[in-house]
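Protein data:
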Amino acid sequence: MARLRPDELAVQRLRELCLALPEVTERPSHGEPAFFVRDKTLFVTLDDHHGAAHLGFWCASCADDPDRYYRPPYVGHRGWLAVRIDREPDWTEVAELVRDAYRQVAPKVLRAQLDVTSA
C-alpha cells in the first residue's frame, strides 16, 4: 500500500473528524473536498485555492493567530476562519474548531445529538 504524503494525511485526519459528526457528508465543491450537514456547507478543505500557499480548511469560527489561521476570501468577513493544517497542527484544537463550526451550522436537533455524544 502506498504511503500518504503529509498533506494527504492531514486531509484524511480532518475528513475523519468531520465525518464523525451527525449527518455530515462529503462531496467536492470548487474542485476540493467539502463537508456538509444537511446541505449546509460545514468545511471546505483547500490546497492552493486561489493562490493559497498552504493547506487548510475554512470553517465558521473565530480565532487570532496568523501562524495557524488566516481570513479566507469570500467568507472571512462573515466570521469564517481558515485553519492551517500544513504545520503540524494541534489536532485536539482542530477537533474543537470542527465541533464549534458544526454547532454554528447544524440544525438544533443535530447540535443536541453532538452534545449527547460529547458528554
